[in-house]
Amino acid sequence: MKYLKKIKPLKNLSLVDKVEIRIIEFLKENNLKVGDSIPKELEFAEALGVSRTVVREAILRLRTLGIIESKKHKGMVLTEPDIILNIEKALDTKLIGEEMLKDIFELRLILEMGMADLLFARKTAEDLIELDKIVKKEEKDLFDSTIFSLEYEIRFHGKLYEMSGNNTLQRFQNLLLPVFQYYHDKKLPTDEKFEYSQKFVSHRDILNHLVNGSPESFRNAMRQHLEPHFDRVLNWIKA
Amino acid sequence: MKYLKKIKPLKNLSLVDKVEIRIIEFLKENNLKVGDSIPKELEFAEALGVSRTVVREAILRLRTLGIIESKKHKGMVLTEPDIILNIEKALDTKLIGEEMLKDIFELRLILEMGMADLLFARKTAEDLIELDKIVKKEEKDLFDSTIFSLEYEIRFHGKLYEMSGNNTLQRFQNLLLPVFQYYHDKKLPTDEKFEYSQKFVSHRDILNHLVNGSPESFRNAMRQHLEPHFDRVLNWIKA
């Protein structure tokens, strides 16, 4: 059960932890929705038999998670939490350890391999024209298109995420960018020497599959395009 | 720029928001690492020229995000935030709106299509034996294996996530389960009538690809297996 590693045993819960859990249960039991008002600090304190300070701290946590906000004249109301914003803040601290960074880097490869069907179902003529512009600019700027340029990678792949029509996926990709930068800056010495047996698949090739191919042909092209990254991922030792 | 929808304009930042941002900047500028102690509340208050109450609230937020914790005799120290736990708390509230639920449901399909290469690189003989047991039990319990049983879906696909060797992915899948349940309970009337043109691909078929096939053949089998879900996803209208 290693994926539950950070959930505290019940006996270690602080009073604030318990109050936080009770308030969340209260919201669920009463089937409260976004925009609904919730009881005042004092009412929670009386109902739960704890001090206002404890309730205040628990509510502050729910506020931080984006579950509650204060509205003028309405008091505290429920709000839809912005999950991605919370991840963003945590990632921003640079406190993420090596194992988590590896997981996240792998996640990027998984997402790019997995989004083919959404891309084919949702691509528009405008999208393809814009993607063509991105590739043309890249071809013009770089004599040797096999040189890995992070900026062009981000522009091309970022457009694909946008085309997926999945807003959460797109915001997720946005906040993963620093992780790519990290691995890009931290190239292994062996990276340069590695000889790729398969033909290099360029952004132009991928675009051609998007225009004339199928989700299946796109996935195979993307897999080859991502070969240097997969090569790193499939060879590293995980804890 | 719709993916930045919830980031507040600078002028709307409260004093606590500003102090929170300054403290995060301070951690980054000083290159502080997990386990390092940070200054006391009073020191932050004096350095920033704000009240201790404001600093306390900002620090409480960082504590909620899992960036800071209090240690006996060491005061406040930095800790690696548990990103997944924060998402879990937010999802747990049932305040997630329809659009986000759709995004998350799509994300599951993307992940299952995209993880093939990791599965082939990391599968072990033990994994395959366990997966075979899961499928055998399913075949024994269900006379008609085309009946969609959520329990068997979770057991089989959950094992695949575990085999990916990506701890973050696995925990992520775990907390997505309520979303699958939601869509499972909320079957559209058209779901039953839909005629699938492609051959139904069972868990047994997918397992055979894992044993004897390639990442490519696995992806194609998985795509067919997920057809009823993709059919729903590719037909819904997104905001």
Can you describe this structure in just a few lines?
The first copy, chain A, folds into two domains: about 10-80, Winged helix-like DNA-binding domain superfamily/Winged helix DNA-binding domain (Arc Repressor Mutant, subunit A, Orthogonal Bundle), CATH 1.10.10.10; about 85-235, Up-down Bundle (Four Helix Bundle (Hemerythrin (Met), subunit A)), CATH 1.20.120.
Walk me through what this model shows.
Chain A is mainly alpha-helical. The first copy, chain A, has 13 helices and two strands. Chain A has a two-stranded antiparallel ribbon with strand order 1-2. Chain A is elongated. Chain A starts with 14 loop residues before the first helix and ends with a helix.
For the biggest β-sheet of chain A, the strand order reads: 1-2
For the record, give the distance between the C-alpha atoms at the N and C termini of chain A, rounded to a whole number: 15 Å
Rg of chain A over CA atoms, rounded to whole Å, is: 24 Å
Q: Which stretches of chain A are low in confidence, meaning pLDDT under 50 for 5 or more residues running?
A: 1-7, 188-194
Strand residue content of chain A: under 5%
How many beta-strand runs of chain A?
Answer: 2
**How large is the count of helical segments of chain A?**
13
* Multimer state: homodimer
CATH class of the largest domain in chain A: Mainly Alpha
Largest interface: A-B, 69 and 69 residues
Mean pLDDT over all positions of chain A:
83
The helix-strand sequence of chain A is: HHHEEHHHHHHHHHH
| Helix/sheet category of chain A | mainly alpha
- Main sheet of chain A? 2 strands, antiparallel
Instruction: From the 3D structure, determine the CATH topology of the largest domain in chain A.
Output: Four Helix Bundle (Hemerythrin (Met), subunit A)
What helical percentage do the residues of chain A reach? 55-70%
Q: What number of structural domains do the residues of chain A give? A: 2
Shape of chain A: elongated
CATH superfamily of the largest domain in chain A: GntR ligand-binding domain-like
Q: Name the CATH architecture of the largest domain in chain A.
A: Up-down Bundle
